[in-house]
Write a structure and sequence with these properties.
about 375 residues; two-stranded antiparallel ribbon
Length: about 375
Amino acid sequence: MIRAKIEDNKYYDKWLFLAIISLLIFGSIMVISSGSFIAEYKFNNQNYFITHQLINASVGMGALIFAMNFNYKNYSNKYLIHIGLAVTVFLLLYLLISNQGESIKGSKRWIFGFQPSELAKHIVVFFFAFSLNKYKDIITNYKKGYLIHLGILAVIVGLVYYQPDFSTSMMIFIIGYLLFYISGMKLLHLTATFVTILLPVIIAIAIIQPYRLDRFATFFSPKDDVAGKGWQVEQSLIGFGNGGFGGVGLGESRQKEFYLPEPHNDFIFSIIGDEFGYLGTTIVILLYILLIQRGFIIAKNAPDFYGFLLANGITIAIAVYAIFNMAITIGLVPPTGLPLPLVSYGGTSLMMTMFSLGVLLNISYKSNQLKHGNEQKIK
């Protein structure tokens, strides 16, 4: 029986699993290192993030293992996927209209420590993989194939945007739109909509949230307000500069001592650059490249169109967040709050990401079984 189990495990993508575990372990170490100073200040407990990160990582591993061993095709159950979508919309609405929910910096994003926008990011992938597969024969039809899906995406994006959480809403929009393109929707439909909504979105941002225009202005000229709006990017770049090639050493960064906001979360990549230098950041980037590459290979070899869409969606979500987070820390895009997948501190984000990656591993399992002519149902 043990030998059979070992033989069974060979069907999982080992390189993907290696990348996931490596990022998880290194991320946990960096959360502990980068968050110790701020934990002492906020909670009078230097080990606060150690305890919570170990719990988050343990639950995340449980989610990964469960999803690895649960047939991904079960997520295409119409009742299950519609319940998931309904629960997500309900939680997002609940945050907007109720007095409940934790408010930080004017944004209500948590309900008893759970972040519904993180659930929304992942349910978009699972729902559209299901729906785009179900209606693949009419996906090029403007009304029945395109507008209906665009409307559902717009509702989720809008609810997240009004938390307000502009950055996450835009990431969800990008993930959904890329899935539309991959599914075979007409490029003409996608381009026309994007061009049509671009100007109204910019105007809405300028009227409803004018401070975001200040962020863009600061992005193009951060030196004009180094002590104010340009502080984050300037201090992040200083961190990379301090690190040089090999870094100042684990736990030795000074940028985490109130120079950088959220050093254990949004700007953890800068702390990696400070403590491990060019060498450390290169290794992290290579691990993400490996993860993303394996994800797209798994999608290409998926047993069916649903698996193809699901694997692509999960990989795209990881890629988009990783690229934007790292780009923010080195000043390539305006600063906004986005976690670095598997590395940044955050319970909901880590658990949902690990679950989705477990599903990706299960898709690799099923495709490799078919490839070797040894398919059997996963119970």
